[in-house]
Amino acid sequence: MKINDVILRTITKVVVFIILTLGVYLFFAGHHAPGGGFIGGLVLASGVVLLYLAYDIETVHKGMPFDFKKVAALGVLLATGTAIGSLFFDVPFLTQAHTYIDAPIFGKMGFSTVTIFEAGVALTVVGVVVTIILSISEDE
Amino acid sequence: MNVNQMIEWAAVILILIGSIVSVISAFGMIRLPDVYTRSHAATKSSTLSVLTCLLGAFIYFWVHDGFVSVRLILGILFVFVTAPVAGHLICRAAYRSRVPLAKGSGEDELKSKLFPEEHTVK
């Protein structure tokens, strides 16, 4: 008998957007407020895990065709890439730079290479958490 | 006593109401007989208590510090949407693993629909 879980699926469609938005917010808030790459990545991964709970693995993979091991590898590459990139400017390893520019709509915006490093951390966390949960759940 | 202080008192009373409702919910968890009535107590009243507490905190920070916390609004929305669904899923899992109803419940009309092979006509 096919299980009718329309309530769970409908709520998941709404709630996943709130969770992913909160994850992105936590990621960008991390420079001046509590947050950052690690919990941002964990919240994003929990949104993905909620999708896996409500739908089956094939449906989620059809909508999100990432290999999460490669996502983790890309994250480590980004994090070490910003670290190595500082070597080209004749400064020590892992030195971070930041600047302010005047964007047309948003006004004064701060940019720093720490954000790229944190993006690497977030992608690594998402990839590792989803890979762990998928490999546990597919174990027969 | 100016307007700001009165609004802060309203926030304090909201938080007090929320904690009282939360205690009532905990008593319901202890006193009620089976999993369905307990889920009724745990889901509705603790959702209401969390909502009033978060609303009180939101109003307090807004009036006292001038800080509009979008995260608290999102939290109110999130709890309001997800807590009843969690209660629904727990009750459903309990019913499908054949947890019996309490004595004195009315007629179980879902049983003949969900488990037709076990249904015996009285």
From TrEMBL, chain A:
The keyword Thylakoid does not apply. It is a multi-pass membrane protein. It is found in: Cell membrane. Residues 7-131 form the Na+/H+ antiporter MnhB subunit-related protein domain. It holds the Pfam family MnhB. Its main location: membrane. The chain crosses the membrane at residues 7-29, 35-55, 71-89, 109-136. Keywords: Cell membrane, Membrane, Transmembrane, Transmembrane helix. PANTHER family: NA(+)/H(+) ANTIPORTER SUBUNIT B, NA(+)_H(+) ANTIPORTER SUBUNIT B. NCBIfam families: PRK12573.1. Belongs to the CPA3 antiporters (TC 2.A.63) subunit B family. This is Monovalent cation/H+ antiporter subunit B. It comes from Lysinibacillus boronitolerans JCM 21713 = 10a = NBRC 103108.
Automatic annotation (TrEMBL), chain B:
The chain crosses the membrane at residues 6-30, 42-63, 69-91. It is a multi-pass membrane protein. It is found in: Membrane. The keyword Transmembrane helix applies. Keywords: Antiport, Membrane, Transmembrane, Transmembrane helix, Transport. Pfam families: PhaG_MnhG_YufB. InterPro entries: PhaG_MnhG_YufB. This is Cation:proton antiporter. Its main location: membrane. It comes from Lysinibacillus boronitolerans JCM 21713 = 10a = NBRC 103108. Signal peptide: none annotated. It comes from the Bacteria. Belongs to the CPA3 antiporters (TC 2.A.63) subunit G family. The keyword Phosphoprotein does not apply.
